[in-house]
Amino acid sequence: MESQLHIMGVVVFVLAAFVGHHVVHGVPPLLHTPLMSATNAISAISVVAAIVVAGAAFEPVRTTLGVVAVAAATCNVVGGFLITDRMLKMFKGGARQAKAKVGAPGTSKPARGDGAAG
User: Fold this and answer.
1) What are the residue ranges spanned by the domains of the chain?
2) From CA 75, how far away is CA 4, in angstroms rounded?
3) What are the tens digits of pLDDT across the range 27-72?
């Protein structure tokens, strides 16, 4: 009975990995940042679960693995939010740079207000 549970767990893991791979690769590049933000918020659930496992009165191996899981999940969430923030700043920076280039000295586009049609 227990070996069937392990096999079923492996089957569920493989199916989830397969479906997840196809779902992520089906997302257009424009939606990667919002999707990443949502998955980071969902990843916070794994931090809570790891804290529960680490704080439970299990044998030392499980507690140690729980602490490692807390550290890994926290790094995942923090790193994900940092990357998302960096990507959002890149998008905002691109809009500011485009506005600054219009009418800047040395460009072929005339500045607004000098009487030239633009």
Assistant:
1) 30-93
2) 34
3) 787 777 677 777 777 777 878 888 887 888 778 888 888 888 889 8
